[in-house]
Amino acid sequence: MKKRELIKQHLSQLNLNELLKYRLLFCSSEPNEDLELDITDLFKYPTRLKTSYVDNWQKDVLKALFHHINGQCGSSSQMDEAISDLLLKQMYSEKDNRILGLFEHFLASLQSSNVELIHASLHRKLDTLKF
Predict the structure, then answer these.
(1) Does residue 62 contact residue 27 with C-beta atoms inside 8 Å?
(2) pLDDT tens, 53-73?
């Protein structure tokens, strides 16, 4: 299996929290990107997580890991080991810890029984359409 496919396989096994952690550790921020604002926006627009953020984070992390991992890995266990070695060398900044805390609060709010998502009127109209 090629290095790219092994990385994709590894990333597909991560939960959302782990994926964000990888994103924070391995990807330097783009000048026009503010992950803290993106996570804060999730409280208003939770569907963004599934519709765009996860795909973007996976693409960013895939690209970063491809460049960070030297040489080829012949198996998924070798890839897991190479990524584990990289993780040992990384540290979170204060901002990263703040972002992780916000994200954990957001995920907890999704699990809460007293939180209900409010859909816009356009969203409700789309839900009632029959195809």
Answers:
(1) no
(2) 999 999 999 999 999 988 778
Give the tokens for residue 49.
């997580």
Q: What is the pLDDT of residue 127?
A: 65
DSSP labels, 14-71: --HHHHHHHHHHH-PPPTT--HHHHHHHHTT-THHIIIIIHHHHHHHHHHHHHHHS-S
Give the pLDDT confidence score for residue 14 in this predicted structure: 96
Q: Report the 3 state secondary structure along 94-130.
A: HHHHHHHHHHHHHHHHHHCCCCCCCCCHHHHHHHHCC
Report the distance separating Cα 55 and Cα 36, nearest Å: 17
Residue ranges of the chain with pLDDT lower than 50?
A: none
Q: 30-38 contacts: CB < 8 A, separation 24 or more?
A: 35/99, 36/95, 36/98, 36/99, 36/102
